[in-house]
Amino acid sequence: MSQEIWINLPVKDVERSTAFFNEIGLHAVSVGNERAKLAIGQTTILLFPDAEFEKFTGSKIADTSHSAEVIFSIGADSREEVDTFIQKVEFAGGSIFGKPNEIDGWMYGAGFADLDGHRWNLLYMDESKMPKL
After folding, report:
1. 48, 55 in Cβ contact below 8 A?
2. CA distances from 87 to 13, 26, 80, 133 (A)
3. Residue 46: which H helix or E strand, with range?
4. Per-residue pLDDT tens over the stretch 72-124
């Protein structure tokens, strides 16, 4: 069995979402008809139009204005990377639901929602300050 994972994500406008993700520094490319591929490390996220996603899954998409279906967490290499990334998100039209801050003395992160309200988290972990078990 293959160990690859593809996450399928519904979006209202694939072209606009592709531009948003490219603008914030994530690499997204169009794939076939009205789809795009977003690659983050070893993870592939496929962007599908809402209607096609509903047809494929046989269910309605979540209303992200009232609920969260998932949060995608991305590792950062530094606090500065978190701050710069969040500035790009704001400039590109995303919304920030968690401003950059320190968590438990060894993590630094921030949360944002993309153009469709899907939630994302960027997190830097300073392993030298990580509590020992």
Report:
1. no
2. 23, 14, 11, 35
3. strand 43-49
4. 999 999 999 999 999 999 999 999 999 999 999 999 999 999 999 999 999 99
